[in-house]
Design a protein that fits this description.
With 133 residues, this protein is of the alpha/beta class. 24% of the residues lie in helices and 32% in strands. The protein is globular and about 40 Å long. It starts with 6 loop residues before the first strand and ends in a 7-residue tail after the last strand.
């Protein structure tokens, strides 16, 4: 199997609210293939989909119950600590919820966390060992 991801699908409770968050706060535009039932956003080589949580669980044939920490975060790496701060402040000014203010990390990086309206974590980070910017 090749080392790649084609699509990340978030099971969500309110597709419209979540779609507005990613459009208005992150500034992303849904792809034309989006419908009322699923929203697609083109990322850098990967697509993000928003799909009804119950329907996604049914599709995978697993129970939809569950709350709290989802055991994953999504990351947006930037080229410097200053870029992290600017991006963090910009997203906060547009309504993103702060989970953890940006701070230096013991291994030499710098990061903070925000959450979308349904609690999915986004790490905004500068990692001197991974320069994706």
């Amino acid at each position: 199997m090749q080392q790649r991801i084609s699509l990340i699908t978030l099971g969500v409770d309110d597709i419209e609210t979540m779609s507005r968050f990613y459009t208005e706060v992150f500034g992303w535009m849904p792809l034309r293939q989006s419908t009322d039932q699923i929203k697609f956003f083109q990322l850098n080589g990967v697509k993000l989909a928003l799909f009804d949580r119950d329907a996604l669980a049914e599709d995978a044939d697993i129970p939809a119950e569950g709350s709290g920490f989802r055991s994953f975060s999504l990351a947006y790496n930037l080229g410097s600590k200053e870029q992290v701060d600017v991006c963090f402040e910009e997203l906060i000014s547009r309504g993103a919820r702060i989970v953890k203010q940006p701070e230096m990390v013991y291994w030499g990086g710098y990061r903070g966390y925000i959450a979308d309206p349904e609690g999915n974590l986004w790490e905004l980070a500068w990692n001197p060992y991974l320069n994706d910017d």
